[in-house]
Queue: 2 jobs
Job 1
Amino acid sequence: MSKPEFQRARSPEAKQMREAAILDAARALGAEHGIRQVTLTDIAARAGMHKSALLRYFETREEIFLRLTAAGWQEWTPALAARLGAITEPGPASVARAFAETLAERGMFCDLLAQAPLNLERNVSLDAVRDFKLATLAARECVFTALEEQLPRLGRDDALDLIATAVALAGAFWQIATPGPEVAALYRSDPRLAHAVIEVEPRLTRILTATITGMTPEPA
Amino acid sequence: MSKPEFQRARSPEAKQMREAAILDAARALGAEHGIRQVTLTDIAARAGMHKSALLRYFETREEIFLRLTAAGWQEWTPALAARLGAITEPGPASVARAFAETLAERGMFCDLLAQAPLNLERNVSLDAVRDFKLATLAARECVFTALEEQLPRLGRDDALDLIATAVALAGAFWQIATPGPEVAALYRSDPRLAHAVIEVEPRLTRILTATITGMTPEPA
């Protein structure tokens, strides 16, 4: 934080705009190439600034992608709550499908969900981790509310486990379902590897249907 | 592969011993520090050889850890099958506990399970990926057999989904449960972050119990 004063004397609005531009650049690159390929230098180039200038806004590439992960939670959870609210045939299968569809539609978010605990939370400040955890905690509230309406017999602890299961599986399955191009070709060419080719949405729907069914046994 | 002939003219036994020594060194370092911290240079130093010598046996650090992941599957699955075979009170909860206990006892394997699709499968040769996939596929067979005996109503597709769910959740939850020391201290210090502290085994037992219950409905 030893930058000369004239560089820091921006208006809060100008600072927010630069941050938003950096996040937009990282989002576009992540969607094009996958998170793992994107460097801080790439993001600075896409945002049209020098890397040294970018470092005044974010400390590491991990901080940028952790911010995008939090933004992903804030965008996904209301969409999921709306999908849950629109269910016409209540029950475990419909709820599972709402989770699976809304997650499978958000490939970069699935990528980020898997990367966050492994890679992103490990190279940022404690403040950044705290902000991230509190943001994702708050984002869950609208899902709890929607689940209470759809599945009145699902307790709060089960709802927490269900969300954790859905995001962990979506992250892991997305990684397995999107290997590099050479490995994808290998999977298609060798019938013994047919099991390695998975589709995120149907598998997630099947598993979450079973999990929710087991969490909400019919009253005896 | 332009090494001089005299270096490659080892007996197959000598080559296997060097490979085993390298894998042992990587396993010890991974258990001490977590996979993500361990470099090829660290492994060479622990195995008592130069990095250039190590590169005659393995192409990348990822290839070494992918081999350890396959070895982890080959060690875990018979242990799980034995635990399943020893169940005295059959049912979803006992089967779930066998999965959760045997996975939670194997921290480095959980770490590897999460790292494999994200990081390890992406920096190795196609042959290495093929060998890895075929090894983990074969390792599952003894679990299928044990599951058939414990849960006769669980179909093969559900058994495949169950194994995939257990390893994906174990990998993801292990990462969340073992943050760096500073982040762990933050979690303990801020009551708003209590939800961020999770225990792998009880959570995995709860979720898998529900999933298996939903996969094996009582006949009407």
Job 2
Amino acid sequence: MTHHEPAGAALAEPASPPGVSPRVREILSYYPSESPGVQASLARLLGHGRLGGTGRLVILPVDQGFEHGPHRSFAVNPPTYDPEYHPRFALAAGMNGYAAPLGFIEAVAGNYAPHLPLILKLNNHDLLYDDDDPLPAVTGSVEAAVRLGCVAIGYTIYPGSAHRVEMYETLQFLAEQAKSAGLAVVVWSYPRGSGIDEKEGETALDVVAYAAHLACQMGAHVVKVKLPSDYLFQDKAKKVYEDLEIPRETVADRVRHVVQSAFDGKRIVIFSGGSKTSAEAFYDDIRGIRDGGGYGSIIGRNTFQRPWDESLEFIGKVIDIYADEA
Amino acid sequence: MTHHEPAGAALAEPASPPGVSPRVREILSYYPSESPGVQASLARLLGHGRLGGTGRLVILPVDQGFEHGPHRSFAVNPPTYDPEYHPRFALAAGMNGYAAPLGFIEAVAGNYAPHLPLILKLNNHDLLYDDDDPLPAVTGSVEAAVRLGCVAIGYTIYPGSAHRVEMYETLQFLAEQAKSAGLAVVVWSYPRGSGIDEKEGETALDVVAYAAHLACQMGAHVVKVKLPSDYLFQDKAKKVYEDLEIPRETVADRVRHVVQSAFDGKRIVIFSGGSKTSAEAFYDDIRGIRDGGGYGSIIGRNTFQRPWDESLEFIGKVIDIYADEA
Amino acid sequence: MTHHEPAGAALAEPASPPGVSPRVREILSYYPSESPGVQASLARLLGHGRLGGTGRLVILPVDQGFEHGPHRSFAVNPPTYDPEYHPRFALAAGMNGYAAPLGFIEAVAGNYAPHLPLILKLNNHDLLYDDDDPLPAVTGSVEAAVRLGCVAIGYTIYPGSAHRVEMYETLQFLAEQAKSAGLAVVVWSYPRGSGIDEKEGETALDVVAYAAHLACQMGAHVVKVKLPSDYLFQDKAKKVYEDLEIPRETVADRVRHVVQSAFDGKRIVIFSGGSKTSAEAFYDDIRGIRDGGGYGSIIGRNTFQRPWDESLEFIGKVIDIYADEA
Amino acid sequence: MTHHEPAGAALAEPASPPGVSPRVREILSYYPSESPGVQASLARLLGHGRLGGTGRLVILPVDQGFEHGPHRSFAVNPPTYDPEYHPRFALAAGMNGYAAPLGFIEAVAGNYAPHLPLILKLNNHDLLYDDDDPLPAVTGSVEAAVRLGCVAIGYTIYPGSAHRVEMYETLQFLAEQAKSAGLAVVVWSYPRGSGIDEKEGETALDVVAYAAHLACQMGAHVVKVKLPSDYLFQDKAKKVYEDLEIPRETVADRVRHVVQSAFDGKRIVIFSGGSKTSAEAFYDDIRGIRDGGGYGSIIGRNTFQRPWDESLEFIGKVIDIYADEA
Amino acid sequence: MTHHEPAGAALAEPASPPGVSPRVREILSYYPSESPGVQASLARLLGHGRLGGTGRLVILPVDQGFEHGPHRSFAVNPPTYDPEYHPRFALAAGMNGYAAPLGFIEAVAGNYAPHLPLILKLNNHDLLYDDDDPLPAVTGSVEAAVRLGCVAIGYTIYPGSAHRVEMYETLQFLAEQAKSAGLAVVVWSYPRGSGIDEKEGETALDVVAYAAHLACQMGAHVVKVKLPSDYLFQDKAKKVYEDLEIPRETVADRVRHVVQSAFDGKRIVIFSGGSKTSAEAFYDDIRGIRDGGGYGSIIGRNTFQRPWDESLEFIGKVIDIYADEA
């Protein structure tokens, strides 16, 4: 089969500039249509922290105050009420970047934007009103991301919600604007709403793979999904998995399938979630992500709801797993 | 009758420039109000591939990952998860162009836009939420089509849906924008929704002809409809077909009627679908399209769900039928 | 009473430029606030064809393919599927202008705009989905009308529809845009929808007069209404007609009343419809329009559903009636 | 109490320019934040006609053709179908200005804008569809008011309607635009809709006072309300009126209260309505408005539904009352 | 723990310019991403009046005429109908600033903007129509705030309302616009609507803390909430308060918790409300706010519904409490 050779294979490729990671260069080659500005933003995210240059990422998201309330998020570890806690931690732990809503980013960007890749989370949802078909509010803008020195915008879609069309269309608008401003686009793709009428459908393998693919098709550079279970939700999809015997037993199997659904690995896919039974079980999930070809993790409450030193160690271990490839 | 002579018949027409297909020139004359930019885009689509210059087209659309999920689309032929597979195939098979949503186009435009006519499909619909009156989300933009070097935008309308007004108005806006950017406009016109309250109404001859006409009236340069059956859906239309004895027995009869409804053949109409019983039956449908005056086909799953070599042969045969006029 | 003398009566009026129709000059004086560009567009429409300079108009509208389907519109006279048929006919018959949706105009404007006044119909409604409170879709734009060399935009409102506010507001926007581009504004004012809960209310005299007045108040230069019956629909209006003994027995009486409601004859009002019992009865209706002070007719299916030669004769006779004033 | 001295009392005020009315100067001082353009427009309205310079106004509004139909408005006095009738009358009678929808203004602005202050009524409502929570359509624009040489825009709000938010927000947008174009803003504030669930609530004193205050808070320069009755509608408001023994027996009492609610008399408030029992009773209402500190009247049907000469006398008498202060 | 040192601690800080309050400088350092224009606006608000330089604020809001009607607001103290009363009082009493809707600000800005910090309240709600899920109307604009010389915009959100998404998104838009115009953003965050299905939930401690956090995350510089009770509303939040034994007995305890939820005190939080039993009880609440680290108060009816002299004394006492820190 000849169709798998890269398009420009016959061309002599220029030698890698000194100090540039070949893996990062390869990843950037998956985005051949992006401007130098967008490529530079992706490179900055991939180049920062202890995993810089490996092509792996561990990102710190702190939008839980908005999503669940400040008490449920920060009271267990009161220093985390301070917006400065989080970027300081991300720097100290060598994470790749920090994602948060407008207020938290504004409170720190003036001091941290030069030192840490920042991701402005543009839409958010709160629990003072909740409905079955959630629609997050747009609470930030590309203009704000630019003035705050961010490398990327973040945006959540809920495939399965009755309001998905509005979410997708707003993403389209914001992503196009972001790209023309040289920013990367990170999409949280969380199936939810009345189209997914079983709770376990939200993390079903077929659904997560579909959600990852949708985000990629909508122009995301980085996609964030939940670690999938081995459950299958859609009847027509189920038939395909069973007929073709697609492996889904291990975490690595399932991650591999999701990564494949994300343009055969040509989009950066990172995962949230992981076993809550013990730190060791959590590390095993990280190993599964790594072995299945996942690009990394986004870890929020597991980071900041532990005390600073314990968390430094915990995240350090996660980074070790990704870095050592072991 | 004098009314059938072309408007400028008395004028001496300039000789055809060397190497320019007279049929393509004739087709372009059906678009007398378009700018040189739009005419150039149409010419590029009509000029590419093995059918270049014949006035016939075979286009590869790959939006099924979005529409039905990646598993149902690509798992049967895993190399197709890779966004680069499809434009490579279209080039190898000598197809006229490649149409896909934003993500798939972005993943390849940087390498393929100079070599293959690309069509950015601007709206899409997924099945994680489905309703009786579908409304696809706009997931791309004319600005994106321009920066990605596309020759055309693609847009789906669902006449018969309760949301048709929104779809039509968005098409109006995007088409006007596309034309002023020198892009061609390809419209998928699929009757569907609560206005078509029988499944077989969606491919009824009267409905498909009406849908083709609507797309033309909304300014489409290229219209894509499903191959119609001989069923009639609307009572008032049925009476007309029966009173006037409009032929509808063969595929060619029905295609001829649809083409006539598309400005008497002065708009490019291409067809999807075809018999699933066997490849030979499918080829017969292609012959019917050709003999009825259809401009060509748009073939997705029938292309990429076969292995590369088998598909090359299958599509090759389709192109042969259109090219040989036999 | 002194209030009926024209405002500038004391001023010496400049002599009519050579070759300029005094009646057209008078009509243009009813639009004293319009720019020279808009006045020129109105003058072009009033100056074209066999009725040029008389202040009367007969316009050819071909939007029935969109509104009712191509089969019900064109199959009875197949050459009419060809978009070029219609402007050729309008030219041959000496009609004042040709109105159609975007696609039909785009298909001919490049060849016909210099020779025939074109009206781009900006909104349209189809029957693949129908509801009691119709809302036409905007399927064209002022930008398109300008690039296509049109003299006017056309727009339909349905007073009585639950969606009337959206229609009126879109008209306001498009009309203002059109005027600033030097285009005239033609409004089809068709009472319809749940506010008019009897079918015969749609052509009731009080309703048609109200509809004509509304279009004038919304800034229309030319208003198109249906020929009214002598029925009265609104109770409060009925009382007025009966108390004041407003004549409504003959077509001429009713047309006179509608024309009066259209700014006392200072807006161009044209009529569609007419008796279907025989050509002679239809001509009698035309005479009624003429004698009641109507500005003319807009005749679609009665034009193009007859064979070319028969239609030439039929429309010729209508024009004779308007031209000969007999 | 020191707080009632004017803010700049200590400053020497420049002497009044020759020929400038001190009362008009005082009124203009209530609008200290407005540009010279807006102040000039207000001054033009206050300076025109027989009441010019007195600080009182009588305005002619003719939007009844739109609101109730041409028959119910004009048939009783047929010359009023002619759009030119109304500004001629306003000039002849020495009224301050003329307010009408787009069509009526366009029909005369080219001749009358230099001679008579014109107010373009930007939103309107018709009765071919009526609902309990009315939403008028925006049928004009600030751009139109500018090109038509108007001194002000007019806009109706219906506090109490379920659609009030949309009305208020559109007013905000249009008023801001008008002010930046140097136009004054006249607001018709008519409580109506399901929030006012008794008919007599619409003219209740508490409701009218509230409506006047709302219009002022939304930035109106001139507010138009209905002459209130002594009824009280809101329970909580009722308690205040009774506890504080706010006088509401006479027309003058009630007008005084409304004027107080309109920024303590620092906004121009004019009244519509008045007794229908006899002309004399109507004049008494005018005296009540005058004595209560109202700025004047807006009189439509009472003007144009009387024959020209009778109406000249009737309006003349109203103006006398305001002018003579007797 | 090292994470609590300020980010730029190692840098030598420039000496405080002469006359600049160190506390104000510290507060401004909490907004490191804001432009000099925004910082200057905040400094102006913090620098004005008797509390200028202390970092505490007492603000006068007068939007009650819009929110509850002029009678219920002003009749008890009639001079307050006059828009000039309020800024004169704020100046006389040494308050930090004055907030009101468009009309009240327009009526005074031309005279007072140079002397008193003005806050234009951009959205408002009235009671002529009331519903369970309120949506205030936007009745002002950033452009107006700029032309009126204001230092800030004010905006109300109702977390818990079914319309919260629209409110949040409008806030995002207006806040971004305000910041680029150098204005500060003051957000009234009032939980209300069907998401808070108990009246006492609106002032529950967990809800008020959540509401304050939401406003901060949406980019507010100054947040205004109601003084919370010790009630807990959300079940999941309740569990946190009880498990972690978060103190909530005294006003100071509760204010401290809200201030912590507002970015650990790095956003200016001010409180409305206070005991209605006596002035002394009210002063105790003020002491509670002060001792809990609240930045100050916003006091409307308690200010202007008392006679001028009594109110001067009352507000004077409140300011004394904040100023003396005793």
